[in-house]
Amino acid sequence: MGQFSQWFVDFFRLFLDNLWRLIKSFFVGIYNLLIGYPIEYAKEFLIVSKSFSFLDWMLSVFFIVIFLILVVMFFVVVFQLLKRYFRFTKIEYEKLELLSRMNVLERKLKNGGIANINNVPKNELGFQGNKQVAKTEQQRTKGNRFVKLTLIDEKYKYSVLPTYMKEEEKLTLSQLVTHFRNYSAKNHKLYYNERIISIFLAGMATSKIMILEGISGTGKTSLPYAFGKFINHNSAIISVQPSWRDRYEMMGYLNEFTKKFNETEFLKTIYETTYRTDIQLIVLDEMNLARVEYYFADFLSLLELPNSDEWLLDIVPEQIIGDPINLKEGKIKIPENIWFVGTANKDDSTFAITDKVYDRAASIEMNDKAESFDAPETPSIKLSYKYIRELFDNALDEYKLSDRGLEAIKELDNYITKNFEITFGNRIMKQLLTFVPVYIACGRDEVEGIDYIVSRKIIRKFETLNLPFLKKELEELLVIFDQLFGKDKLIDSKTMIQKYIRQI
């Protein structure tokens, strides 16, 4: 006990001694900087200057003046920076205080009436009470031009909803194909083959815009619908109207007369996705009932930008108090965890989808209805955007296109460019280098993946050519397919070429 007491006393004596030395050194340093050192400099100068000539005195005076000016300038700059910092801090504090007061006032205006009514038992409210609740709710939203989006803010309490996945839900891409196929068949009686599901997932990795086209009844709309059910986040199905001419028909617009924003289901879904971390599919059903390149033009351009922080879409000219918090300067950011899936039929009531749209989208042909089968009981899962993005990135690292495949694509591109004046281009090559590795990770074949991109992105464009004058080149192309990729390969591409030849 005595030794501990001695050590305890010595420790604090040493600690206080060191602390005093530190404080003393600080003040001694300030004193020396402002007084002590200048006195030493002056004494040294007086001693040395006794032997100065006239020229030495002139140079000394000039140096001292310049030195003093620099010292004064240094302290002035330091003073100005400190002054600016304290002024900035004061302004920011006043700003925060003002915003806090505004928020308190806004909450009182919104919730004051409802809070008083909520204290009254429901059976005592009666008809007049219900009218008062409705009136108070109307007053609460009267000054807000985004009623639906503000309700989303309140629903999520201004916080992003995390997606927690169990270990058994962390499937590989090939397992994801099998589980989704079984789930869809067992729970919704919707049957798809593994190839279509693999194309769908690889298409998600390739582009944020997907087009499902084909004959009616093959499950174009039900595929993204079932996938939404499978991942426990329903897909939003938006019926495209023939009257759509620009994005305002789809996104909504500000009514200058009522000062209210006409909030569409499309805009509401995009805004709600900013609060989520799972996957959101927006289905544009019968997307070619109107011209896609008209109403969807802004999305076609924005989603091609490599930096997702630049996916900003103008909603209103300026931000005002009370607007939804995820609108920044009147713009909404298109979330990375969202995909736009359009379904399209080819008939007299629809418009042709242009190359501008096809080139930017992942196109999926659905002309065959899958056979029904007995599927085992398969539960739905939760799937976060971060996890599926990791699956895609891992596939790009693990299943890169083989050198043989790349060389064959290069030779095929040279032939098609020379004879048909259609080229793969940077965009299509980028899609090819993404689609094929993910398609392989889903349990499929490399050449089969190449075939799908070549047929949907290149051979499809032959429809615009003057084919009767290109019969010889088309027949030669079939031979080149066999030479580059082997016989009984590139089935989709060959089928399309043979169809063109028969039509000549």
Fold and architecture overview:
This protein has 504 residues and is α/β, with parallel strands linked by helices. Among the domains are: 149-382, P-loop containing nucleotide triphosphate hydrolases (Rossmann fold, 3-Layer(aba) Sandwich), CATH 3.40.50; 399-504. It is 60% helix and 8% strand. The chain has helices at 2-48, 54-118, 122-142, 147-156, 173-188, 194-206, 222-230, 247-251, 265-273, 292-295, 297-302, 355-360, 385-398, 403-420, 425-441, 446-458, 471-485, 491-503, and strands at residues 209-213, 236-239, 252-255, 260-263, 280-285, 312-314, 327-328, 331-333, 338-344, 362-365. Strands 2-5-9-1-10 form a five-stranded parallel β-sheet, with helices on both faces. A three-stranded antiparallel β-sheet has the order 6-8-7. The chain has a two-stranded antiparallel ribbon with strand order 3-4. Strand 7 (327-328) and strand 8 (331-333) form a beta hairpin. Residues 112-141 have low confidence and may be disordered. InterPro entries: P-loop_NTPase.
